[in-house]
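ugh ok fine here u go
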Amino acid sequence: HTEGNKLGGVLQYIHDHLHEPMEIEKLAEIVHLHPNYFIPYFKKAMGCTPMHYVQRKRMEEARRLLSFTNAPVADIADQLGMQLSHFSRQFKGHTGMSPTEYRACTR
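structure:
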């Protein structure tokens, strides 16, 4: 197995469960690694920690939903399994603008 293939199951799991709380233990279990080994393994293969990757994927999905749906920001936060205030802060940290500002720019 190449590194990518081994992580394929993890990446698919993350994709399928973006809206749920993500546990490092669960992700490590998918590739049969102890969490302490999994984190550096993932980082070496993907260039960032698993949780950073999860956040990035959530923000990509948020951008997509803000651009292409009329779902209220609170619903989008909910769909990503995040509290609205936490979501708004994260989003602004990632994009430099609030979800509402971002939506206005991409319309």
